[in-house]
Specification:
Blueprint lengths: L8 H20 L3 H23 L1
Helix pairs in contact: 1-2
Length: 55
Amino acid sequence: MKTSLLSKPSGYYWASLIMFLGLIYNVIEQDLFGSAIFLISSAIFLSVGFVKGRA
């Protein structure tokens, strides 16, 4: 069974947005480790979305 959630660039943009919301929450809670993880995840999803969009 094939999923189509992350087959289009827009799926990665939505994932990046969700990770960014997690980043905001962790910044408010002052959790530096969690903030770093969510920042890296958001950047990766955004980058993959751009790469898939150009391909």
